[in-house]
């Protein structure tokens, strides 16, 4: 599903215009991004949680040349599905 598909689905399910649905989806995405950027977690009961994890600096290898490469430390977004989401996916409903 793409962002456009999501906007279409929200518009049809909520009986709103595509423009309003797109604005709603944008607000939700921006809220998620800004919350994660602050280092806070987002917990959506029945769906899952978003968190930011710190990855330490490490040594890697360039697969083409085999040369050692320093990979800097960074923050990465992480999603952990909730129990209900796991159950729905695994039962196929």
Characterize this entry briefly.
This protein has 93 residues and is an alpha+beta fold.
Just name the CATH architecture of the largest domain.
Answer: Irregular
Number of domains: 2
User: Count of helical segments?
Assistant: 3
Indicate the overall shape.
Answer: elongated
Tell me the Rg in angstroms: 19 Å
Beta strand count? 5
Give the end-to-end Cα distance, rounded to a whole number of Å: 18 Å
- Beta-strand percent range: 25-35%
CATH top level of the largest domain is: Few Secondary Structures
Residue ranges: pLDDT <50 for 5 or more in a row?
A: none
CATH fold-level assignment of the largest domain: HU Protein, Chain A
Reading the helices and strands in chain order gives HHEEEEEH
Going by CATH, the homologous superfamily of the largest domain would be IHF-like DNA-binding proteins
Class of secondary structure makeup: alpha+beta
Q: Percent helix among the residues?
A: 40-55%
Characterise this structure.
This protein is of the alpha+beta class. It folds into two domains: 40 residues; 51 residues, HU Protein, Chain A. 43% of the residues lie in helices and 29% in strands. It contains three helices and five strands; from the N terminus they run H-H-E-E-E-E-E-H. It has a three-stranded antiparallel β-sheet with strand order 1-2-5. Helix 1 packs across helix 2. The protein is elongated. The model has no long low-confidence stretch (mean pLDDT 93).
Task: Name some characteristics of this structure.
alpha+beta; HU Protein, Chain A; 2 domains; 3-stranded antiparallel beta sheet; 3 helices; elongated
